[in-house]
Design brief:
The protein has helices at 19-29, 83-99, 159-163, 169-190, 194-202; strands at residues 9-16, 36-43, 46-47, 53-54, 62-69, 105-108, 112-115, 118-131, 134-143, 210-218, 221-234, 240-244, 250-253, 258-260. By secondary structure, it is α+β, with helices and mostly antiparallel strands. It has a seven-stranded mixed beta sheet with strand order 1-2-5-9-8-7-6, with helices on both faces. Strands 13-12-11-10-14 form a five-stranded antiparallel beta sheet. Strands 3-4 form a two-stranded antiparallel ribbon.
């Protein structure tokens, strides 16, 4: 049984285009409780990073959004609008759940979870929402759970395909929320997130391995070219550190500067 640290307001819906979009509209028209969860059975036009779409088969997966208001964990107010902090917290929590099943799971910078080299979880965080002088953050999560058919052109898979068992979606949802709350509580108790950065770096996908990228911006200049390099770590600001083309110099990239290929 996964105990929740803070009570949740679970809103279960049958069909939506996007839980993040619905959550943004919900903020405007309702009195928001922290840990409001928008969960939908059939998401028809889910949002992914960089305007990508998250495709999910009806009733087979988890597609949900979490709403937090800036008064939550008041000491984090300076960091509240820093998406990378929440990216790290959410990725770590979900990774810890999967690590119980296998050690072949990784965190792909900035916000995906990889299982046996296949994408299984996508995370999209939106932090620019202000209403009635209050700041809100929406954490959108797409988790491939029981779906068994995927576009072969996409490097995606599901828990069921790997572990050959059918998962209870509601139980898994509550477990995810429980683990996420534990990550926030740890930061609250110790007033630091250095442990979260260290965990993220420990399980960083392709760390110390040669990988390929499209570099879109470097040294504040717009560029676009293919390159290869070795992923080293992420910084305390959530930037990816890469050693490019055997260059002794290390380069730092934000998520808008570079696209990971393979």
């Amino acid at each position: 049984m996964n105990k929740l640290i803070w009570p949740i307001n679970l809103i279960q819906l049958d069909r939506l285009t996007s839980t993040n979009k619905y959550a943004a509209q919900y903020i405007i028209s309702n009195i928001i409780k922290n840990w409001t969860i928008i969960n939908v059975i059939n998401q028809t036009n889910g949002k992914g990073t960089n305007n990508n779409h998250w495709y999910s088969e009806k009733g087979k997966n988890l597609t949900f959004s979490i709403i937090l208001e800036s008064s939550f964990l008041h000491f984090m107010s300076y960091f509240f609008t820093k998406v990378y902090i929440h990216n790290i917290i959410i990725c770590n929590a979900i990774h810890k759940i999967l690590f119980y099943y296998t050690n072949h799971c990784w965190i792909k910078w900035p916000n995906d979870i990889i299982l046996y080299d296949k994408k299984i979880v996508g995370i999209l965080i939106e932090n620019n929402i202000t209403y009635n002088s209050k700041k809100y953050i929406i954490i959108g999560i797409g988790f491939n759970v029981n779906q068994i058919l995927f576009d072969p052109k996409l490097k995606t898979s599901s828990l069921r395909l790997f572990f050959k068992i059918k998962f209870n979606l509601k139980s898994l949802l509550l477990k995810i929320i429980s683990f996420i709350q534990k990550e926030y509580l740890y930061i609250y108790m110790y007033n630091t997130y250095s442990h979260a950065i260290n965990y993220y770096n420990t399980f960083l996908y392709k760390r110390n391995q040669m990988s390929y990228f499209i570099i879109k911006r470097k040294n504040h200049k717009i560029v676009k070219y293919y390159s290869k390099g070795i992923i080293k770590n992420i910084t305390n600001n959530g930037h990816l550190i890469i050693k490019i083309n055997n260059n002794k110099k290390l380069f730092f990239f934000s998520k808008n500067d570079i696209k990971f290929l393979f």
